[in-house]
């Protein structure tokens, strides 16, 4: 989804990916991080996980890599349970869906 062309449209700035690794064209991202078109990236996910030891992302000073834990926040389970309970009631016709995608 996020190609080199899309990255170029962002201009100089930071990119954050906490969704799925393949969402961003990693080779295009690395190219833009190296030449300064992007100031930096925060990556909780990468195309290949675990990120290989020889990935150039490890050596880029303008990249922050976290261990694929962006969704694990305090009270995450409690919030997910409330959302599931709410949407089960919506499924039964008792209200509107939350976070509906389609």
Strand content: 5-15%
Q: What count of helical segments does DSSP give?
A: 3
Give the low-confidence spans.
none
Helix-and-strand structural type: alpha/beta
**Average residue-wise pLDDT:** 93
Number of strands: 3
Radius of gyration: 18 Å
Task: Characterize this entry briefly.
The radius of gyration is 18 Å and the shape is elongated. Helix content is 32%, strand content 11%.
Can you give a write-up of this model?
With 102 residues, the protein is α/β, with parallel strands linked by helices. The protein has three helices and three strands. Helix 2 links the parallel strand 1 (14-17) and strand 2 (40-43).
Brief descriptors of the model:
3-stranded parallel β-sheet, 3 helices, 102 residues, alpha/beta, single chain, 3 strands, 11% strand
Set down the secondary structure blueprint:
Elements: H1 4-10, E1 14-17, H2 26-35, E2 40-43, E3 63-65, H3 76-91
Parallel strand pairs: 1-2, 2-3
């Amino acid at each position: 989804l996020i190609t080199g062309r899309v990255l170029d449209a962002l201009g100089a700035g930071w990119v954050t990916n906490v969704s799925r690794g393949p969402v961003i064209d990693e080779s295009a991202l690395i190219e833009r991080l190296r030449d300064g078109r992007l100031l930096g990236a925060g990556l909780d996910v990468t195309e290949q996980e675990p990120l290989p030891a020889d990935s150039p992302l490890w050596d880029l000073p303008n990249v922050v890599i976290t261990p694929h834990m962006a969704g694990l926040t305090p009270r995450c389970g409690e919030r997910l349970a409330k959302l599931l309970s709410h949407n089960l009631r919506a499924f039964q016709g008792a209200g509107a869906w939350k976070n509906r995608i389609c």
